[in-house]
Amino acid sequence: MRLRYTVPALADLASILDYVAERSPQGAKRIHARIRAVTDLLLQYPLAGVATDDPAIRRMTTIPYPYLIFYEATDDEIIIHAVRHGARDPSGNPGSA
Q1: In this predicted model, what pLDDT tens digit does every residue of 79-89 receive, in sequence order?
Q2: What are the sequence ranges of the domains in the chain?
C-alpha cells in the first residue's frame, strides 16, 4: 500500500503549515507530525475514516488538531484529496453533497 497526495491536497497542506508556522513554528511541526501519523495509520487501516456522501471518499480527523483528511482507499494506495480545517464551510469538501 502506498500513499499519494493530489496537487490540491499538497496545496492545502502547505497552506495550513505556512499559516501556523508564521505564528508558531513548533506548532506547525506538531501538526505536520500528527497528519503524518494519521496517514500512516490509514496505510494500515484504509477504512478507518468515516464515509462521506461520496462512497469513494472517506474522512479522518487529526485529533487533537481540527483538521480533516479527505481520502480515497483503493486496492493499492491511499489517495489524499484534501486537508481542511474543520471550521471551514463543508460545502467545498470532497464527498459533500
Answers
A1: 999 999 988 76
A2: 2-88
pTM of the model: 0.90
Cα–Cα distance for residue pair 41/23, rounded to 1 Å: 28
Which DSSP symbol is given to 88?
S
Q: DSSP secondary structure string, 6-45?
A: -HHHHHHHHHHHHHHHHH-HHHHHHHHHHHHHHHHHHHH-
| 2-88 CATH | 3.30.2310.20
Q: Which one, of 20, 58, 55, 15, lies nearest residue 38 by Cα?
A: 58
Neighbours of 86 (CB within 10 A): 13
* Of 22, 11, 18, 17, the residue nearest 32 (C-alpha): 17
